[in-house]
Amino acid sequence: MMEEITQKLQLPVLEKGWVWLVGAGPGDPGLITALGLCALAQADVILHDALVSDALLALSPAEKIYAGKRAGVRSCKQDEISDLLVALAKDGKRVLRLKGGDPFVFGRGGEEAQALARARVPFRIVPGITAGIGGLAYAGIPVTHRDTNHAVTFITGHGADGKLTRLDWAAVSRGAPTLVLYMARKFAGEIADALLDAGRSAGEPAAIVANAARPDQQVILTTLGGLARAAQTAPTLSIIVIGENVRLAGELSWLASTA
Ligand code: SAH
């Protein structure tokens, strides 16, 4: 079947000595792309993050190396991962680097690709569905909607130093009507305060989409004023979305929620 798909869609083959940096999508294993599935079928070795579903990994007989973070503990440093990718490729392996969501969205895929480029290892980027778009879709929240927002801002709540992202929050607040925040649960209170100080309204709809596109998905509907409190009890793996488009969740929610 996979061979037929590869042939009919004229998909490239994962060659020896190559690294494919692939996005697995957010949670639901069905959200991986055809190219991603091809890579799973062809890889000799897979380096994966904690966010990649076990069901996907189980499809492949390849050697699997866990290179992620669990409970905030970094089990593998970024440089070590990049070095390992280079070493495996130079060893002639077909290497699949599998990441949750999209590899180039807050996933450090750019840094890994830079390391490969500098080491002259051939690579391919296979985009995936990012949690801030696909995860919202699983909550019935269109990331853009004609009646509510013509723009959207994607933000990470904290940087590599683990502190609240240094951003001009007043400018963020005046910018796109819809804000989608990754890795922001811990700083939800500070972020909400900064946006309120900058003039956003406390009654503005907000949602926390936790474990999006997973069997334990929870959609917590709140407001900007209620965000800090809602975040306190939300599960760790959460996307926060602030904006009028969140109201559509009432009408468009299509997946049974355990919340
Ligand atoms: N590259 C990934 C993001 C990695 S950063 C992507 O494109 O989706 C990790 C953050 O993504 C988490 O802290 C969380 O904010 C968000 N995230 C990833 N998967 C998620 C999911 N299934 N449900 C909710 N949030 C998710």
Describe the structure.
This protein has 10 helices and 12 strands. By secondary structure, the chain is of the alpha/beta class. The strands form 3 sheets. Strands 3-2-6-1-7 form a 5-stranded parallel β-sheet, with helices on both faces. Helix 1 crosses helix 2 (34-42), helix 4 (78-90) crosses helix 5 (109-118) and helix 8 (188-197) packs antiparallel against helix 9. The longest helix is centred in the N-terminal third of the chain and has 13 residues, at 78-90. The chain is globular, with a radius of gyration of 19 Å. The model has no long low-confidence stretch (mean pLDDT 94). Bound molecules: S-adenosyl-L-homocysteine. S-adenosyl-L-homocysteine binds next to helix 6, strand 10 and strand 12. S-adenosyl-L-homocysteine binds at residues 26-27, 51, 99-102, 105-107, 130-131, 135, 182-183, 209-214, 237-239.
Descriptors:
259 residues; Cobalt-precorrin-4 Transmethylase, domain 1; 2 domains; alpha/beta; 12 strands; binds S-adenosyl-L-homocysteine; 20% strand; 30% helix
